[in-house]
Amino acid sequence: MNMNMDPFDEMSWGTLGTIRPFFNFNAERDAQDIQAALEQKGTVSMSNDAVTLVKILTNCDNAQRQIIAQTFKNMKGKELITGLKEAVSGELADLLSALVMTPLQFEAYRLMQAMEGIGTDEEGLLEILCTRSPQQLSKISAIYKEDYKKDLEEDLKGETSGHFAKLLVALLKKKVIVGEVQTDTEVLSEAINKAKADPGPWITVLTSRDSDHLNQVFDNLESEKHEAVVEAIEKAFSGDLKLGLRTLVHCIRKPHLYLAQRLDTKKTAIVQGVMVSHSEEDLLCVRVAYLKQTGTTLYTALQRQFKGVHLQALLSICRSED
Q1: Which of 97, 242, 271, 295 falls 20 to 30 Å from 68 in CA-CA distance?
Q2: Do 79 and 73 touch, CB atoms closer than 8 A?
Q3: CATH 1.10.10.10 fits 103-172, yes or no
């Protein structure tokens, strides 16, 4: 992905997202309707009140949701996410809570979740660290520290080890600098052709150049070695480092295809994570890649996997067939 873009800073009708600003937006009306839905007796998750929540929160963009959340807090004296979690349960509650978080908060939350509990979700960490710009990651780190009172870099080091930990930290702190295509090609070629491949230059180059530059380097390497870069990585490296470098190359080569393949895992947390994270940025592109990859539209695939109000919420984020 283009490391210079910062879609969090400006989301509008000109984006490739599926969720856009609602023209007839009225925060006070929406907050009152949400309050009424949450105050109904019994479970909200399977009722018409849940449909009301979904309709409001998926038909406006995140900036408008923040205004609704603040209006709700002024009315009720508590956070909207708290109210949602008290009234709604399960996967629907997780999805609605994700929509109410700011994009930065949600990415920080996903990183925290990937490291929480027993075991670490390496692929979850890589998805965010490989697809976000230096500017975004800097802001995500700040939010992570503010929300969880912990240092993201230190947590990454604590949850991983060796060259994989070095790769994650380099991704977190990546700064794009200008390099020479031929020089970088030679450096990477020499590092991978050693009896024991040296990951150092691969970590340095792949986390400090823009995607256009790296694609030229990859083209050169593939012409030289007569095999795809990911295949060369498969042969030269092992374990989590191999996973990390392969994922990073995939994100540089075809970022929307990578995200489509994440969706195709059909794991609820991954599906919701990708869809919410990219709903105002480039989900239209991910939908196209999903159709090309699977032969099925994302809209149809969701209907085969989910049901009820939860399905309605996901379809509303997806928006339409391709």
Answers
A1: 271
A2: yes
A3: no
Nearest to 177 by CA among 213, 201, 138: 213
Topology (CATH level 3) of domain 1-101+268-322: Annexin V; domain 1 (1.10.220)
Neighbours of 135 (CB within 10 A): 14
**How many C-beta atoms surround the C-beta of residue 222 within 10 A?**
15
Q: Within its chain, how far is the Cα of 215 from the centroid?
A: 22
**What b/e sequence results for 94-106 when a residue is b if at least 16 CB atoms lie within 10 Å of its CB, and e otherwise?**
bbbbbbbbbbbbb
Nearest residue to 61 via CA among 8, 27, 19, 107 = 19
List, by residue range, all CATH 1.10.220.10 domains of the chain.
1-101+268-322, 103-172, 181-253
Scored b (16 or more CB within 10 A) or e, 272-297 reads bbbbbbbbbbbbbbbbbbbbeeeeeb
Return the DSSP state at 196: S
Interval 29-68: pLDDT, tens: 999 999 999 987 555 555 778 999 999 999 999 999 999 9
231 CB-near residues (< 8 Å, 6+ apart): none
Could you give the C-alpha distances from 45 to 88, 89, 203, in angstroms and in order? 5, 6, 45
Q: Which fold has domain 181-253?
A: Annexin V; domain 1 (1.10.220)
Q: Residue 299's closest CA among 283, 314, 281, 282?
A: 314
Task: Please name the helix (run of DSSP H) or strand (run of DSSP E) that holds residue 135, with its range, or none.
Answer: helix 134-148
How close are the terminal C-alpha atoms of the chain, in Å? 23
Kindly report, residue by residue over 226-248, the tens digit of the pLDDT.
Answer: 999 999 999 999 999 999 999 99
Q: Among residues 114, 101, 98, which one has the least CA distance to residue 155?
A: 114
